[in-house]
């Protein structure tokens, strides 16, 4: 079927390519003309503006937005809305806050435009392996777009999880769980790396071992195997970890629902610590330990 893809970054570009491979007609747009040209060479129809995107689509239209969460989504929708009409569908496949998604769906519904939120997981591997799609929206709109979702997802990798906002809500919690899993692996490997009794443990060999029959085997650990194979001590990587919002939103939702989520919460806070060259709070603790117990402090 025909659709447009707005935003041709690592995710949007690969998704466009997978859709083209699946026989869909894809109109592509990105602020980068080079990105648009890349996918026109693969068979997409390029557009130089959002207005041109709309003109090249047959009504009722389907437009997939793959841009950063927040203002970029609102700005894109604001520019598109006057050019769209009754029966048109906008899909937000980024990591938007579900509260924003519910607001956008209500606003667009006033103009007869359906809004679908699609929590998308799979990263750069999705092109070949498919994407896990957590879809929220009105049933009729989701059914109409089902051929798109089935092409993007592997078998059993797509589900309509609820009304508008539900897709991004499920993806938010998914990413909160991811925070906790990543932190557990990171702490375990750091203990192994720091061992004084066994200072020459082979991280790559251990990670590979754990992929065979172990209860901690997983795709994330498979990626650890790849990372340690490239750089056994990760010396070329700075220990600075970003967060794109979903972990914070998951923790806030847990607070709002009175649900204890200590692992996810602490994994989020640990990411903040990774961004400090030298933690002032750690300095305070060191100073207090020195004051009450005469514990040694390290001078800068």
What is the gist of this entry?
It contains 14 helices and eight strands. It has helices spanning 10-21, 33-40, 50-55, 71-80, 98-109, 126-129, 139-144, 146-152, 166-194, 203-210, 219-230, 246-256, 262-274, 280-293, and strands at residues 2-6, 25-29, 45-46, 62-65, 89-92, 114-121, 132-136, 158-162. It starts with a strand and ends in a 7-residue tail after the last helix.
Describe this structure in words.
By secondary structure, the chain is α/β, with parallel strands linked by helices. It has 14 helices and 8 strands. An 8-stranded mixed beta sheet has the order 3-2-1-4-5-6-7-8, sandwiched between helices. Helix 4 links the parallel strand 4 and strand 5. Helix 9 packs across helix 12 and helix 9 crosses helix 13. The mean pLDDT is 94.
Topology of this protein?
Blueprint lengths: L1 E5 L3 H12 L3 E5 L3 H8 L4 E2 L3 H6 L6 E4 L5 H10 L8 E4 L5 H12 L4 E8 L4 H4 L2 E5 L2 H6 L1 H7 L5 E5 L3 H29 L8 H8 L8 H12 L15 H11 L5 H13 L5 H14 L7
Parallel strand pairs: 1-2, 1-4, 2-3, 4-5, 5-6, 7-8
Antiparallel strand pairs: 6-7
């Amino acid at each position: 079927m025909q659709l447009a893809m707005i935003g041709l970054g690592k995710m949007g570009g690969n998704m466009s390519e997978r859709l083209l491979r699946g026989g869909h007609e894809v109109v592509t747009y990105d602020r980068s003309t080079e990105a648009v040209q890349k996918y026109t060479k693969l068979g997409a129809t390029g557009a130089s503006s959002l207005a041109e995107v709309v003109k090249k689509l047959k009504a009722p239209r389907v437009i997939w937005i793959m841009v950063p969460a927040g203002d970029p989504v609102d700005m894109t929708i604001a520019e598109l809305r006057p050019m769209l009409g009754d029966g048109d569908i906008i899909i937000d496949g980024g990591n938007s806050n579900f509260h924003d998604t519910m607001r956008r769906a209500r606003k667009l519904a006033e103009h007869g435009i359906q809004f679908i939120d699609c929590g998308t997981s799979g990263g750069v591997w999705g092109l070949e392996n498919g994407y896990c799609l957590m879809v929220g929206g009105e049933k009729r709109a989701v059914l109409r777009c089902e051929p798109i979702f089935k092409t993007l997802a592997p078998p059993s990798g797509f589900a309509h999880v609820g009304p508008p906002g539900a897709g991004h809500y499920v993806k938010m919690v998914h990413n909160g769980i991811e925070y906790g899993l990543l932190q557990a692996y990171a702490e375990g490997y750091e203990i192994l790396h720091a061992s004084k009794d066994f200072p020459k443990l082979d991280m790559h060999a251990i990670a590979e071992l754990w992929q065979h029959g172990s209860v901690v085997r997983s795709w994330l650990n498979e990626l650890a195997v790849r990372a340690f194979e490239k750089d056994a001590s990760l010396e070329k990587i700075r220990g600075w970890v970003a967060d794109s919002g979903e972990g914070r939103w998951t923790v806030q939702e847990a607070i709002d629902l009175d649900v204890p989520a200590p692992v996810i919460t602490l994994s989020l806070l640990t990411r903040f610590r990774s961004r400090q060259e030298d933690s002032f709070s750690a300095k305070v603790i060191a100073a207090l330990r020195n004051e009450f117990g005469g514990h040694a402090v390290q001078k800068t």
